[in-house]
Design goal:
Elements lengths: L4 H27 L12 E2 L11 E6 L9 E8 L3 E3 L3 E9 L12 E6 L12 E8 L2 E7 L4 E4 L4 E3 L9 E8 L5 E11 L7 E10 L19 H24 L11
Parallel strand pairs: 1-7, 2-6, 4-13
Antiparallel strand pairs: 3-5, 3-7, 5-11, 8-10, 8-12, 9-11, 12-13
Length: 263
C-alpha cells in the first residue's frame, strides 16, 4: 500500500469523529439517573429574618396572645424527622435564640401571624422549620403526640440568654414511632415563664411506613433502556456507517490501494 497524505488526513478525521461519538456516549449516560435520590430537605421559613433595609417580618404567636413589655423577639428552629419505619426511634431538636437582626426591631416592625390551636399541621418534605416568636429568659417547651412515645433528653424548663447573638438554648426529645403505618403528628408548644397558656404552638405531620417500604431500591434499567441510550446507539451506528463509506470512496478513487492478492 502506498502512503498518501490525503488518506492519512482522512483517516485521522475519522478517528476523531469516532472518539467524539464515544465521548458523547459517556456524557449522555452520566446524565441518566442510576437511582432515585431523596432531595435534600430545605428549611420552611414562614418567618423571614428581617432584611437590613427594614422590611417587615412575620411574628408567629398563639391566637389570643398579647405581647408583654418584657417579651423579646427571638427565633425558633425545629429539626424533626419526616419519615419513620414502624417502631423506630429518632430525635427532635429545638433551638431558641435571639439573632442580632432582631435586636433593633419593635412590635411595629412585624406582621403578626396568629396560630389557632386547630391550625393544619406543617407538611411537606422539609425537616427544618424556622419562625420568629416571642421569647423570654425563662421558657418551657413541651412536645406531645397522640401516637408517638416521647422521652425528653433535656429539661422542659430552661434559662434562655436573650442577648443578641448569644448561644441558643437547646431542647431535644427521643421519639418512638407507633406500630401503625400512616400519617401522624408531633405537637410542639412554647411557654414563657409560668404562663399556663402557650405563646406559640405548631403541629408537624410525619409519616410512618412499614419496613417493606424501606427496601433496597430497584436497580436501574440496562444502558440501552436509559434516557438517551437509544439516541447514543443511533449516533454511533451513523458514525460507523460513515467511516465504512469513506473508506470505500478512498479505495474506489485509488487514494488507498487494495492489498495485492497472493498468486
Amino acid at each position: 500500500m502506498r502512503k498518501n497524505p490525503i488518506a492519512i488526513a482522512a483517516i485521522a478525521v475519522a478517528i476523531v469523529l469516532a472518539c467524539a461519538g464515544v465521548g458523547m456516549m459517556f456524557s449522555v449516560t452520566s446524565l441518566a439517573p442510576t437511582h432515585t435520590e431523596t432531595p435534600t430537605p430545605q428549611p420552611t421559613a414562614t418567618a423571614k429574618i428581617p432584611h437590613p433595609t427594614g422590611k417587615r417580618t412575620e411574628l408567629e404567636t398563639a391566637a389570643g396572645t398579647e405581647p408583654k413589655p418584657t417579651d423579646t423577639f427571638g427565633e425558633i428552629n425545629v429539626s424533626y424527622p419526616v419519615r419513620f419505619s414502624v417502631g423506630s426511634s429518632d430525635v427532635v431538636r429545638v433551638l431558641v435564640q435571639r439573632p442580632p437582626a432582631l435586636a433593633s426591631l419593635g412590635m411595629g416592625d412585624f406582621d403578626r401571624i396568629p396560630i389557632p390551636p386547630d391550625a393544619p399541621p406543617i407538611i411537606g418534605a422539609t425537616s427544618l422549620y424556622r419562625a420568629t416568636i416571642l421569647i423570654w429568659n425563662q421558657m418551657r417547651l413541651e412536645l406531645t403526640s397522640p401516637t408517638f412515645s416521647i422521652s425528653p433528653i433535656y429539661p422542659a424548663e430552661q434559662s434562655v440568654n436573650t442577648d443578641p447573638g448569644a448561644d441558643p438554648a437547646v431542647w431535644a426529645w427521643t421519639v418512638v414511632a407507633p406500630e401503625t403505618p400512616g400519617l401522624h403528628v408531633l405537637v410542639l408548644q412554647v411557654f414563657l415563664g409560668d404562663d399556663a397558656a402557650p405563646v406559640w404552638g405548631r403541629s408537624f405531620q410525619v409519616e410512618v411506613v412499614g419496613t417493606d417500604a424501606l427496601a433496597t431500591p430497584t436497580p436501574p434499567p440496562p444502558f440501552i433502556e436509559r434516557p438517551g441510550g437509544k439516541v447514543v446507539i443511533g449516533a454511533i451506528t451513523t458514525i460507523i456507517a460513515a467511516l465504512i463509506g469513506l473508506f470505500g470512496t478512498l479505495v474506489g478513487k485509488g487514494i488507498i490501494l487494495k492489498p495485492k492478492e497472493k498468486e
